[in-house]
Amino acid sequence: MLFAxxxxxxxxxxxxxxxxxxxxxxxxxxxxxxxxxxDFSDLFRRTATFVDKILKGAKPSDLPVxxxxxxxxxxxxxxxxxxxxxxxxxxLLRADQVIDQ
Length: 101
Prior knowledge:
Elements: H1 6-15, E1 21-22, H2 25-29, E2 34-38, H3 40-55, E3 71-76, H4 77-83, H5 89-94, E4 97-99
Parallel strand pairs: 1-2, 3-4
Antiparallel strand pairs: 2-3
């Protein structure tokens, strides 16, 4: 529901000097401070294998439930600088993407 308003949310948080962490990378890309979430492209690939098995005759109830195994961590340095925050180098090295635009 709030995805369409992600840029507005990020702007409001920055205006009120609130550091934010989101569960989708697009929020960090829109100006949020950080995002940590399952990699959606990996989830979609895994979904395709389930669809393939079902189309080949497998019963959905017989398929195992899987948890995400690939995660992504995004940090927006531009937002961190605007908030006056210093992100430790060790955290920056662990990030999958660092946005500094």
